[in-house]
């Protein structure tokens, strides 16, 4: 549920605190930055391999550069944005009672073997050996390492709760890195871990971190939602993802059109009911269906609705094969299959495996006369099918007039499909709609999944040994930079929120050969820094059009231009967000900026 907090909620006192904190982030020391002396390699053309707006602009505006597939260098502007996002994260994590530490990226295989994830995490885990042939992994996350540290250092319930966090580079060998910083093989992450002696303490800290995350993403100005999620390879239960709403998001959010219910589509339960047609059962028949492999093709050939077809898929659940049945117009949700069996690994069987196990191609699979030892489970909708159609486990043949229980047996009927738009909302209010989202944060209640596996025990108040209860909380920091970039831009370039803009002011001397312009620009450069503004001074001997185009592309909150009216002591001010442009006396620039930043 997302009724814990909506993104636009903010109290006056919290707003004041944010303003003070954001100001301290911008002005932590005066920085002298002349554009002629830094590295801001802007580009005019859109890079051919950049698919998303954020990726295109981060490259074009000189914030990042790719060094290998899914691996990026943060150039000076990108590093400054990254640093400011990190500082907001630190402020809210510290306020939530967490303490910062730093753990190694290089993790010994033995720890992962203790937890069992060495064998189940998958090919995304980057594994390597040292010169002594010892196995290591480049850490994608740090549950194993932090659990080993705490189990060795803490023995008493009196030391709980404990919350630790770090901001560090992580590694995942993504099969298909894409969208720039949104899905890379090396990235910056804030990961936190909490340790408790009871579930009530875990619940309290979980809610506290949940609130901290909401504060972070609100302070960044993001349009986000917190949604019910799946824990995946992390283990545990009771998890929420923080999703930034975006059309390029790889995750689908299922939300109610009449309430605040929201969940990742993988986790949204289906509460639809199905009425069984009142018609007599017909005799089952085997019919030829040459070249009809998909539900759509079979439905068209036999002139039956897809809702009468039974879609049959073979899954490998840990070390066993299971047939999963859903109605023809539905899709199997493998997360629900995994959760039903409480399995570690669930994979769709390959065509070769299907042929070996059932003796037929995928397009002819069905539940009738299945080999002994193959368990069959079905979605609730299958139970209501009368005189349906399914594969005959023989290439080019299907059965018609198939009826559950009469023609095949099902071990269990349960919720196994993806929810669809138009389905009833699980909370009983309204119907389901879909939106796309970018996952930027995730909070988990791990329970004792790691502590029991790795022997992390403490002595309770009665002197009895108990497993530590854990929580885990992650934010993709570099991914968040990209999510902000995706939401804050226009056709000219970035429009950075003031709290994380790389600089406050872009000061431009139109003609550096003009002594009056140059001197006035230098005076403003010094005076604005004394007022604790971060200023990027474009002192390059470039044409005015180039400088203005770069300024719009980089997207700092305010542009101050020293041009032809410098001799009159007049400068031009442009607000990037509103495109508002006006002239002011140079002597009034400080008060004008104060007024502008108060409104932004």
From TrEMBL:
> Which one of the record's GO molecular function terms can you name?
ATP binding
Q: Which top EC class is named for this enzyme in its record?
A: ligase
Q: What is its EC number?
A: 6.1.1.15
Q: Which GO terms describe its biological process?
A: prolyl-tRNA aminoacylation
Q: Which UniProt keywords are given for this protein, alphabetically ordered?
A: Aminoacyl-tRNA synthetase, ATP-binding, Cytoplasm, Ligase, Nucleotide-binding, Protein biosynthesis
Task: Extract the Pfam families matched here.
Answer: HGTP_anticodon, tRNA-synt_2b, tRNA_edit
Superkingdom per UniProt? Bacteria
The keyword Cytoplasm belongs to this UniProt entry's keyword annotation: yes
Q: Looking at the keywords, is Cell membrane present?
A: no
One GO cellular-component annotation of the UniProt record comes to: cytosol
- CDD domains (alphabetical): ProRS-INS, ProRS_anticodon_short, ProRS_core_prok
Residues forming the Aminoacyl-transfer RNA synthetases class-II family profile domain are: 65-497
Biological function: Catalyzes the attachment of proline to tRNA(Pro) in a two-step reaction: proline is first activated by ATP to form Pro-AMP and then transferred to the acceptor end of tRNA(Pro). As ProRS can inadvertently accommodate and process non-cognate amino acids such as alanine and cysteine, to avoid such errors it has two additional distinct editing activities against alanine. One activity is designated as 'pretransfer' editing and involves the tRNA(Pro)-independent hydrolysis of activated Ala-AMP.
Task: Report what the protein is called.
Answer: Proline--tRNA ligase
